[in-house]
Amino acid sequence: MSKLASLTANGKHLNVYWVLLIAMTLLSAAIAERAEPSLLITIVIAAMIVIKARLVIDHFMELKSASPYIYHMMNAYFYLFPLIAVLSWLFPETLAEWTSLGP
Amino acid sequence: MSHTTTQPQDDVLAVTLASDLTSENEPVDRLKQAFGPKVVPGNPAIWVGIFSELTEFGIFFVIYFIARVHYPQEFLEGPLQLHTTAGTINTLVLITSSFCVVKGIFALRDSRPDAAVRWLWMTVGAGMLYLIIKYWEYQWNVDRGIEVNTNNFFAVYYYTTFNHMLHVGWGSGGIIWAISQIKSGRYTADNHAGLIAAACYWHMIDLAWIMIFPLLYVLR
After folding, report:
1. Could you say which residues of chain B have pLDDT below 50?
2. Do B88 and A29 touch (CB under 8 A)?
3. Using the beta-carbon criterion (under 8 Å), do B210 and A56 form an inter-chain contact?
4. Which residues on B lie below 8 Å from A70 (Cβ)?
5. What are the Heme-copper oxidase subunit III family profile domain coordinates in residue numbering (chain B) (predicted)?
């Protein structure tokens, strides 16, 4: 058994993903405290949501080997909302117009 | 329900559960066609629950985006008034709790039930820590005059985070149930579909917070 296969079999590879998730969370917190709002910051945060969600879905939930319906629906959810976050930064007036109840 | 404890392997659960429920072959065939050769982790019922919960959170997220484009000033200033450190610590706590759950599953698969129980108790402990921090954060907000009706941003903040907090509460109950099943010997290395189901639900709670934290505390 290769070293990587051995690590995966006993779950030690999960430690690496945990460290990555912690690091990205701390980066998000630093951005929240210091960075001014911008399109770039919005894209970076949206990308981090996608990466964190994929790490949890693929490795903690182990959905990679699950039904493709479940796997793809879970992934789609965590691509869709970060995308809306970027779109709501780019086109706020359009979204406000589309979601207005009045004439 | 005995269906989840009597299956020899997780990966045949979807089909065998369906065959338990009906004597007709046709529904089973349809289920096989729907999911193909891949597995349904835990059991099909938990995925109905998970997608229902994600739909509920999805409605909250849609409301967030609609409110945000209609009240940009409130959503620009709101995150600055929240306790970012409390939100960050809770994110770290939930990610760690998700890590503990899957480590517990690996321990049980490795026929180390005592280690599995320890990992799962750490998950429950993380859940309790999350609830304590959230309660403290709400108190901190109220002391500064931040309440549900302060403005639209805080209305979205309270409804979303309170709803999430409830999920952490009953998700912890699910993990405690799984612990009791391991301790009684019902869940073993080869038969622990119920633990997988509880774990998937817990990961869903973590995933929801992975979305909530940046939307409410980080993005402006």
Report:
1. 1-24, 34-35
2. yes
3. yes
4. 40-41, 47
5. 45-220
- Give the angle A32-A98-A40 at the CA atoms, nearest 5°: 25
Q: Which amino acid is at B155?
A: A
SS3 assignment, position A66 = strand
Which residues of chain A neighbour B200 with C-beta distances below 8 Å? 61
- Any CB–CB contact under 8 A between B173 and chain A? no
Q: What is the separation, in whole angstroms, between the first and last Cα of chain B?
A: 46
**Residues B24, B55 contacting (CB under 8 angstroms):** no
Note down pLDDT in tens along chain A; length 103 residues: 565 566 566 678 899 999 999 999 999 888 877 888 899 999 999 999 999 999 999 999 999 888 889 999 999 999 999 999 999 999 999 999 999 987 6
pLDDT tens for B109-147 read: 999 999 999 999 999 999 999 999 999 999 999 999 999
Task: Give the distance, in angstroms, between the CA of residue B168 and the centroid of all CA atoms in the same chain.
Answer: 7
Based on DSSP, count helices (H) and strands (E) in chain B, helices before strands.
Answer: 8, 0
d(CA B27, CA B32): 9
Partners of residue A56 in chain B, C-beta under 8 Å: 98, 203, 206-207, 210
Interface membership of B189 toward A (CB under 8 Å): no
Q: Do B69 and A92 touch (CB under 8 A)?
A: yes
Joined together, the tokens standing for residue A79 give 């691509």
Q: Report CB contact under 8 Å: A61, B203.
A: yes
CB of B44 closer than 8 Å to CB of B17: yes
Give which of B132, B154, B135 is closest to B216, Cα–Cα.
Answer: B154
d(CA A94, CA B69): 9
Largest alpha-carbon pair distance within chain B?
A: 62
Q: What is the ipTM of this complex?
A: 0.90
B58 interfacial to chain A (CB closer than 8 Å): yes
Give the H/E segment covering residue B132. helix B113-143
